[in-house]
Design brief:
By secondary structure, this protein is an alpha+beta fold. The protein has helices at about 80-95, 125-140, 145-155, 215-225, 225-245, 250-270, 280-295, 320-330, and strands spanning about 10-15, 20, 25-30, 35, 40-45, 50-60, 65-70, 70-75, 110-115, 170-175, 185-190, 195-205, 300-305, 310-315, 340-345. The structure holds ligand DP6.
């Protein structure tokens, strides 16, 4: 296509939310955004929770910009800048190889992004956000880099974002190199490997979280005496056990590890000075409800996990939908602060489930 100074090039990409079952919490380098421990997540269905981003660039644009759900967002910070720089360098290498390509690497970028879920309420919005950001620019630049290679870039935007470049079950291996280049995400298994697994999201609060993940984890690393044991001993063992549970589709072990790791993460938050509280009374009611559901079933049929906010994510296998969702709804119906909104990922609700 012949280009003029007013030509606008664009590409649109979506990225799903992922919810960690082995949590990332702590950085070895804030500059490279590398983690103190590896982590593992399940990517949710794109149909339910996702960010959609259109990246455009033009010789006519005067500055880089990002609009999220209609509001302007600052892109002058080190994280967005690191992603821009890495992606432009890859595009520049392509242009150097093929001088007939338009010089998109020299143009300013505009990103228009939309989330269909609460932003910054512990629903991993930065994960889907930076993953869609990187994917959309990579598509605009027609880059051929693999999702793992793009995950290295998305990681620099927000750690958990590197896992949202894949569907299914995804590990972020912390890496051992000083330059952070081996701190990337890999897929452990595609969604089709265990397609009966479901996640119900209980939106307890869609308010913006009090302590951001970034500042919370830095405070934990600096002050928690429980933290070194978690990062160097507890999580490495859990990563291996979790990979095995996923490969074997062993829900009971998956559930046990998921709940243990959520509790361990919130324990190091409480052990931080000053303490960080992400869970609230309604979150704790969800924990008790899941414990009761599992007790009645005589085995683990449900697993809770909480990120940096009060909202609960409950994993279960499709075959146990009724014995998990029914009692969960009953148990929570009269609890103040309980969600008026349930989101069920990858699942069709039982008839009448969402009715009062
Ligand atoms: C509790 O990825 O938001 O959700 O790298 O500073 O942007 P930054 O942190 P972020 O932290 C996510 C923390 C978590 C656990 C997880 O997703 O693994």
């Amino acid at each position: 296509m012949a280009s003029s100074s007013s030509t606008i090039y664009h590409a649109t990409a979506t990225a799903p939310v992922n919810i960690a079952v082995i949590k990332y919490w702590g950085k070895t380098s804030t500059k490279l955004n590398t983690p103190t421990n590896s982590s593992l997540s399940v990517t949710l269905s794109q149909d339910d929770l996702r960010t959609i981003t259109t990246a455009s660039c033009s010789a006519a644009f005067k500055s880089d910009g990002l609009w999220l759900n209609g509001d302007t967002h600052d892109v002058s910070g080190a994280r967005s800048q690191a992603c821009f720089a890495e992606l432009r360098a890859l595009r520049k290498a392509k242009e150097d190889n093929d001088p007939s390509l338009p010089p998109l690497s020299t143009y300013k970028l505009h990103l228009i992004s939309e989330n269909n879920f609460p932003t910054a309420a512990g629903l991993a919005s930065s994960a889907a956000g930076f993953a869609a950001f990187v994917r959309a620019i990579a598509d605009l630049y027609e880059l051929n880099e693999s999702p793992t290679e793009l995950s290295r870039i998305a990681r620099q935007g927000s750690g958990s974002a590197c896992r949202s470049l894949f569907g299914g079950f995804v590990a972020w291996e912390k890496g051992i190199r000083d330059d952070g280049n081996d701190s990337v995400a890999i897929q452990i298994a595609p969604e089709s490997h265990w397609s009966t697994i479901r996640a119900a999201i209980l939106v307890i609060s869609d308010a913006k979280k009090g302590v951001s993940s970034t500042s919370g984890m830095q405070a934990t690393v600096a002050t928690s005496t429980l933290f070194p044991n978690r990062a160097s001993i507890v999580v490495p063992a859990r990563m291996e056990a979790m990979k095995k549970a996923i490969i074997e589709r062993d829900f009971e072990t998956f559930a046990e590890l998921t709940m243990a790791d959520s509790n361990s993460f919130h324990a190091v938050c409480l052990d931080t000075v000053p303490p960080i509280f992400y869970m609230n009374d309604a979150s704790r009611a969800a924990v008790r409800a899941v414990e009761e559901i599992n007790r009645c079933a005589g085995k683990k049929v449900a697993a809770y996990t909480f990120d940096a906010g009060p909202n609960a994510v409950i994993y279960y296998d499709e075959e146990n939908q009724d014995i998990v969702l029914g009692p969960l709804k009953k148990a929570t119906a009269n609890t103040p602060g309980w969600p008026d909104k349930y989101s069920h990922i990858n699942t069709t609700l039982p008839e009448g489930f969402n009715e009062a």
